[in-house]
Predict the 3D structure of the following.
Amino acid sequence: MMRREKRIQDLADFLKMNNACSIGELAKKFSVSEMTVRRDLAILESKRVIRFIHGGAVFNPSYDPVHMDDFSGLQDSDYLFNQQIVKNKDDKIAIAKKAASLIEPEESVMIDSGTTMTYLCREIDNTFSFTAICWSLNVLVELSKRQNCKLISYGGYFHSQTKMFENPYPSDFIKYTRASKVFVSAGGVHPQLGVTTPLSYESGTKRTAIEASKTSILLVDASKFGKICTTHFANIEDFDIIITNDKLDASMKDEIVNRGVKLILV
């Protein structure tokens, strides 16, 4: 077993024995940085072993026992993804809750890749049926747990860093697929340079999904505004709705509204 796998297993066992502990105390206990603890806890949370609380974590008593094999084969990219799912977590959950409330019974929606989309899938109402078109593993896994969700997905080259399947012909797949809404993520939103992503392989799918949907909805926390990533895939006005948290700068709020885009703050 790799050292990090052993540490994560020991961390799970420690929390199981002690029920809850602060991140600072865990960092001291395992002689690692608080950032490393957060990454390890993100792995455990993704497997529903623990749940985050303010400043720490609490063991999930319904998860028992914890097996060593649960944490085998971890990649650096798993840490990158799980680090992002922890970053601005409360803001992402609030955004996801609002976005989920926009999905209606029997509706067909497209759901992009990205950590916020994981929270979106968890927040969708379980009382009605809907259809979801997706192209990322985290979305596929979350929605596969729901009996009321009809799933449509396509394969391709798997990028473990983002959990996205890259299809070289996304337009061919979406050519015969339509949705009433698409939920899109982004790495940066700039008034002049548009909506961007740091990974070029994401841009084609994002762009085509926007074109194939009646209503396009951008889900980004306020920290993404003003940032510029390397690959442009849309402009602010290409979206019908932008959902973000209320930390957004006033000038950016005015910019979005003046372009005729509905702004929802949570």
